[in-house]
Structure to design on (121 residues):
């Protein structure tokens, strides 16, 4: 199956949730939150859920909607900030490793030069 865009991705994800819900019939599920990392995909998720909720068997899709029928989708910006922090930390660690390697190479060169000078004298 070739996914062509955000609507297809939303549809496949929501169908997976529906399959789990239909197969297991969990009684403890009261509300389902979907975290969408890309703000541009929120509209596609909302449309897909609304289409499924208005279909012949809304079932689980009612759990995605509030009492007024509006779709509840959570966009988490904090996760994006955490990803940025992790990337910055990785960059800092790589820079520190490069600096340590350069210092070790300089020390090796200095030791070799000193040894060569001592041997030649």
């Amino acid at each position: 199956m070739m996914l062509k865009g955000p609507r297809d991705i939303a549809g496949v994800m929501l169908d997976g949730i529906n399959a789990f819900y239909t197969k297991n019939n969990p009684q403890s599920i009261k509300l389902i939150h979907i975290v969408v990392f890309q703000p541009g995909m929120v509209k596609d998720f909302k449309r897909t859920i609304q289409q499924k909720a208005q279909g012949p068997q809304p079932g689980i899709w009612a759990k995605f909607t509030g009492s007024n029928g509006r779709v509840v989708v959570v966009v988490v910006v904090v996760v994006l900030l955490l990803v940025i922090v992790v990337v910055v930390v990785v960059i800092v660690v790589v820079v520190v490793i490069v600096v340590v390697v350069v210092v070790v190479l300089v020390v090796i060169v200095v030791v070799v030069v000193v040894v060569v000078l001592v041997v030649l004298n």
Notes: Residues 7 and 44 are 5 Å apart (CA to CA). Helices lie at 6-24, 42-53, 77-120. The chain has a mean pLDDT of 77. The radius of gyration is 28 Å.
